[in-house]
Amino acid sequence: MNRFLVLRDAYGSVQAILPDSKRHQFEEIVKSLNYESVLRIRGVVRNRGKARNPKIKTGDIELEIDDLEVINEAPPVLPLLSDQNALEQTKLKYRYLEFRSEDMQQKFRLRAQVTSRLRHFFEKLGFVEVETPTLSQWTPGGAAEFLVPAAKPNLGRFYTLPQSPQLYKQLLMCGGIDRYFQIARCYRDEATKSDRQPEFTQVDFELSFTSKEKVMQLVEELIKTAWPESLNEYEIFSSPFQRMKYEQAMNDYGTDKPDLRIPWKFENCPKKMASILKTGVEEKENFSARMFIAKGTGRHCTEEPMSVWKKLIEINPHAQPFDIFIPPNQTGFNNWDSDFDTNDLVTKYDIGPDDAVVFCWGETDGVQRTLGFLRNYLADTIGLRKKSGFKFVWIVDFPFFEKKQGNFECLHHPFTAPIKEDEIRLWKMEGLENIIAQHYDLVLNGVELGGGTIRIHDPKLQRHVFEKVLKLPTKHLEPFFEALSYGAPPHGGFALGLDRFIALLSQQGNVHTSIRDVIAFPKTKDGKCFLMNTPNEAPPGTLERYGLQIVKGEEKQNLV
Amino acid sequence: MNRFLVLRDAYGSVQAILPDSKRHQFEEIVKSLNYESVLRIRGVVRNRGKARNPKIKTGDIELEIDDLEVINEAPPVLPLLSDQNALEQTKLKYRYLEFRSEDMQQKFRLRAQVTSRLRHFFEKLGFVEVETPTLSQWTPGGAAEFLVPAAKPNLGRFYTLPQSPQLYKQLLMCGGIDRYFQIARCYRDEATKSDRQPEFTQVDFELSFTSKEKVMQLVEELIKTAWPESLNEYEIFSSPFQRMKYEQAMNDYGTDKPDLRIPWKFENCPKKMASILKTGVEEKENFSARMFIAKGTGRHCTEEPMSVWKKLIEINPHAQPFDIFIPPNQTGFNNWDSDFDTNDLVTKYDIGPDDAVVFCWGETDGVQRTLGFLRNYLADTIGLRKKSGFKFVWIVDFPFFEKKQGNFECLHHPFTAPIKEDEIRLWKMEGLENIIAQHYDLVLNGVELGGGTIRIHDPKLQRHVFEKVLKLPTKHLEPFFEALSYGAPPHGGFALGLDRFIALLSQQGNVHTSIRDVIAFPKTKDGKCFLMNTPNEAPPGTLERYGLQIVKGEEKQNLV
Question: Coiled-coil ranges per the record (chains A, B) (predicted)?
Answer without folding.
Answer: none
